[in-house]
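Narrative summary of target 7.
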Amino acid sequence: MNFRIWAAAALCAFGLTAVPAPSQAQEAGGTLVYIVQPEPPSLASFLSTSGPIGLVAPKIYEGLFDYDNDLKIVPALAESYEVSADGKTVTFTLRQGVTWHDGAPFTSADVAFSVMEVLKQVHPRGPNSFREVTSIDTPDEHTAVFNLANPAPYMLRALSSYESPMVPKHLLEGTDLRNSDLATSPVGTGPYKFVEWKKGQYIRLDKNEAYWQDGMPYLDRLVGRFIPDASTRTAAMENGEVMYGAYGAIPNIDAVRLRDTDGFSVTTDGYSMINPMALIEFNTTKPPFDNPAVRKAVSLAIDREFLIENIWFGYGKPATSALSSNFAAVGLYKEGMPNYPKNADVAGAIALLDAAGIMPDANGVRATATLDLIPYGEDWRRAGEYMKQALAEIGIAIELRYEDVPTWLKRIYADYDFDFNVNYFYQLSDPVLGVHRHYGTDQIRQGTHFVNSSRYSNPELDALLAAGAQEADATKRAEIYGQVQEILAEDMPVANLFEMQFLTVYNDKLKEHATSAMGAYGSFDRAWVEQ
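Modeled conformation, tokenized:
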């Protein structure tokens, strides 16, 4: 299939739709109190894709596009776009009359700066999303022309406020991006303006009265509350203190109960763009996980079905490869990868360790390590307890470590001071956007969150990833990613655990909160509360 046909098909499936019309039944005004769990390390969404940041920042910042629940493009800061016949030029027509929250006009200069100087430089996924963008021309204030070295249709799937926020050039140019004041006092173009961050308690956002969508947002205020204790979060939902909790804020054990309680609902809508995968990242640079045999043994010893059924209450699907099975729809997923059992293969793990000469001592211990748990709630603590027991069966003795979000991020992605960690990544809508960052040598970017913390480096794999990013022929691309999955199943720098299904729990008085494919990572511009 040649590029033009492939690109046309991709853009048809990912078509451009009009800005959704306002609901005819909405009620303006009121405050939405929702759960932000845990407290964000910052609000610098241009630096980090940490989940808690995503619960707040996309209400403040905007992207060129949003996406509806059918994954069609919805205009945001860009009203339209045009792709050249060779796929190497993408021209965006920007919306006029948009201002930053400080009153400065939003222009094409902001777009060029955001992509070239910020997202391509310091964002976790930006270097892959915009890898082919060599320059951006700004012939006038409302036109941005992206010049590409090679066609990159996947780029059009990475332009949401969460994934690629547009940031104010006049406030960031010439500053230290990693220590910007915008990390704690953000200034965007979105429907809500940052007002206050009371550490340990809440973040408050108020309605942007100058928002470019007339009459929107409907709500006067958003308050994102931080409630560390899981049972207290559930109680706050039940007694009406909060109305919305996403990404496991309400533990699944409580969510399945509230699902059948009058006045509350549970949905899996709003996650279609992110393709989340629970996983283990190994530090491949030091013992015991510098040995692929140990990494594969860990993957064999984990009962993926047990995790799903007993900790996530049936919401999920066992991982079987480095790629989610959801990529089967576009022909990139390869079945039958080794070292990915649905249920634990303890005998296989022990045999593998024996063959590698990693023998137990007098106490039956073959190796020791510390497992760092992602600090996003009780489900992950329970998963860690299970994994400690499971790995003891093959002679790997582990200690569990659970820290606050900033400490955990620094330990894993800045200091590399860890043995292995349980975590989750978004594989997103194309491997280039969400998967490459795990494995590419060029993704060993110390200090950048959610990239190659394993420090795995394989020149053969690097070449395949580069080829996969540029290949337009669907059959050839499938062959490339088949080889990628084969290599990763043997080297196992990351062991995928299960394809996640997040639950959103909400009060039935809250309306139109899931109109975007980004869900809780959307703007809430259309959300309203029935009085």
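The two ends are 54 Å apart (CA to CA).
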